């Protein structure tokens, strides 16, 4: 009973509504919704002309509906109004995309410039670093070359002037006494000046920390005499080295005498070898 | 269905009269036809066919044009004109959809490129 009465009531209410105004057609409702959506969208700002077309189309559809809510014209007009609204919405969205794209294109241009500059800067820095390295390398090579040249020249001239040996006390250059001095004298022979000049030049080129000039004699004569003779000879050589441009403060002279023979004093050859001046060089 | 046919049969003479009236009052919408056809071509050229939604509205437009052509043959010029209006707006909508898609893809591609460049600039 209750159910039936409520159904009747509902039917009554529906018919009352229907009586007041014709039920809205679904086509027109769709058109209204489409217009409302477009109006709320970016189309309001970005596609105002299209949105206005849509508004006019909807008004026309509403008008047609009011005149005859069942006419096929109403369906057509509602269809056109719906499409016009959809069109406005899409045109608005398109404009939005285009605007964003424009802004992004500007951003990209800036980025491109930044990137190009950065790349240039980086490239320039890398090039500069490379150039510096190259220059340094070239300089080192040149230094090495000249050092090698000097060194080999120094070693060659030293070898020519005397015997060169590397010992624990340093590089020992032995100058034969017979070449340097006349027997019993401490004045240098002219040929000795020449030889010692070469040695001095070689030492200057190669560099040295200190030089000890040691005078040695054979065993003939008294030991005291030999010692003072060897000292005087060492001094003579030291002076000559200084004359040739070596630093006096780095050179000392020692008279060793006959105490450190390198050969047999009983033979003339042995004695000749024992008469000598040794330069003990501590390299740089 | 039977009712509709019945109504149709009854209304046939009436419709004929209306059609004759229309014949006198409304010219065959040749211009509208040409305009709608060129709008369809514009949508085709714009690439609407490649986008599902664009393809759908292009289809609506083509079908409406065909309907309008039949209606014109039947001298139902007023109805043909209204049908052509449908074809016109569907074609225009298809064009707009294609334009939107193009703009959207271009914008996305640009954005992607920018992101790439930003990565490179870091």
In short:
The complex is a heterodimer of chains A (284) and B (122). With 284 residues, chain A is an alpha+beta fold. Helix content of chain A is 69%, strand content 12%.
The chain-level structural class of chain A is alpha+beta
Task: Report the span from N to C terminus of chain B.
Answer: 72 Å
- Count of separate DSSP helical elements of chain B: 4
Instruction: Record the strand order, biggest sheet of chain A.
Output: 1-2-5-3-4
- The top level CATH class name of the largest domain in chain A: Alpha Beta
- How many DSSP helices of chain A? 9
Q: What would the principal axes of the Cα set say about the shape of chain A?
A: rod-shaped
Distance, first to last CA of chain A: 127 Å
CATH superfamily of the largest domain in chain A: OmpA-like domain
Any overview of this molecule?
The complex is a heterodimer of chains A (about 280) and B (about 120). The longest helix of chain A is centred in the middle third of the chain and has 90 residues, at about 70-160. Chain A has a five-stranded mixed beta sheet. In chain A, helix 2 (about 25-40) runs parallel beside helix 5 (about 70-160), helix 4 packs antiparallel against helix 5 and helix 5 runs antiparallel to helix 7. Chain A has nine helices and five strands; from the N terminus they run αααααββααβαβαβ. Chain A folds into two domains: about 20-130; about 150-280, 2-Layer Sandwich (60s Ribosomal Protein L30, Chain: A), CATH 3.30.1330. Chain A is an alpha+beta fold. With about 120 residues, chain B is an all-alpha fold. Chain B has one domain (about 25-120). Chain B is about 90% helix and about 0% strand. Chain B is built from four helices and no strands. Chain B is rod-shaped, with a radius of gyration of 22 Å. The interface between A and B is medium-sized, with 26 and 25 residues.
